[in-house]
Fold this sequence. Notes:
The chain is mostly helical. It has helices at residues 3-15, 43-58, 63-76, 81-93, 98-112, 114-135.
Amino acid sequence: MMPGAAAAAIFKALLNHGRAGRRAPRPGLERKEPMADSTGETPVLDLLANMTADSVAVSSLDPEALILARIAALVAVDAPAVSYVMNLGAAADFDIDPERIRGVLSAIAPIVGTARVVSATTKIVEALAISIETAQP
């Protein structure tokens, strides 16, 4: 499964799990084991998936607002292109109009600065190229 598809699956599963508007974590949400104790083949990706799942579980935002907020945060921290892959994949899976993402970039430019927005735009293009490369057989 591609990283964007995995993130979208996590978002969809948690958002459709009856948490509509709740701020508290879903019942039974427990702290995950530390990465060092992970026995899976992808411990870092597993850790990131768990962190994402936990943040989605406690958020009161709808899927679109959640994904747009995450993209804005990526811009603010000057995240690498690969960080955009998961979130842009989730945005596509939730049918978020690319114009909404451009709107977020425009809205945060005065706060984070033009250089961060230009950097993010370049990284978004790189992320799309990564997604295309990984989708090819």
